[in-house]
Structure prediction request, 446 residues.
Amino acid sequence: MAVKKDALIDAIRASYLANITKQNIQPKIDIALSGGCDSMVLMYALNQLKDELKLSIKAHYIHHGLSAYADEWLAFCEAACRKLNIPFDSMRVDTNTLPSLGIEGAARKLRYEALAQLSVGVIATAHHENDQAETLLLQLIRGAGLKGLAAMPEYDKEKNLWRPLLRVQRQVIEDFADIYEIVFIEDDSNEDTRFDRNFLRKNILPQLYERFPHAANTIARSAKLIASGLDLHQSIAESDSESYFSKDLARLNLMMMRDLNQERVINLIRWWLEKHRYKMPTLKVMQEAYKQIKDRRKDAQINIQIAPNVSIRAYKNELWLVENVTNAADFEIYWRGEDTITLPDASKLSFTKTIGDGISVDKLGTQTIRIQNRRGGERFKPAANQPTRTLKHLLQQSPLAPWEREMLPMLFLEDQLIAVPHFGVHCNFQAKKYEESYQISWLRDI
Prediction:
């Protein structure tokens, strides 16, 4: 028994040195505590290592309200922490706020969001080797790509998550609980095989482990190998991005990337979407994107819906990620001195007070600026030595993409168009060199 006890402590110590110490992270550990066997063992083990590793630990319980016993579990966790003199707090979440994700998905998303709010250090969860095997098998069943099949990393820098038990099997954790007589709760929902993970754990994996005793270890090893493959794909995409993207990652050069094969193009687009935090589309959508890119003739349209509110579109020789305007109705907004105004398409119009650049404060006087989208027929004169032009003519000569023109905000004083972002200020309203003025900027995420 002593060997197994030491094995768990050794595994946590090794994981800490390889991930937390190596990353030069402060030794502040926030434990995600449910009261179950795994998280209770993790808390007891970290408490044993506290002095050796100079850890500052705190435990957090997230109350999902899904069980009639949730209040009792909260009280149990609080009492367990009090006994060990470990700081404790909790937060309630409501899974009904995210019905589209299902109970499991909503609980998981809200739990991690709550932990992120409560934590001051790295969040430690009690996922173990068997959990890793289950995750990989579930992702295989769902037809996941490399990112899904890579399953859970031991340390996730982006999410600030540390999984110190990921190389430890469930049996070792249960043995540790027996040795130290650790009391824990049994979550009744873990017996409900309507949930996919429970079905796999109760009905499928016992037979698999009986036939292949080392399956959890070998499946987890495969997840790690897949993660290495994912890292390689990410490295290739990052290298490609230097050649094919604009510096702000907003646009992708179509002509240059046409020489890439399908796998490389899809990999690059996936990387692009991930950078902008969009949900990954299906392989079918990605293959259609590649086909349109490969077959595109000069100035031909590309419009690929990759998410409910996002499309990939082409303009000139570049690909753009475009957030679809759900409300393209005409709008009128009045500016009354705010620093920033949010427009119907979620873009923003900012007003920065400066000297000699933009709309003259003196010429503006006490009049109220009206902001609206294009209606057609507008005329504009940004330079005194040039004739008045139709806005349509100016737009045709501008680098603005067609979908940007649709929601281009214009500033009026009564019927006079006085300013248009990207085109400047009407010559009669421009500030002189030392005159107070408002600089106008149109801010868009993409």
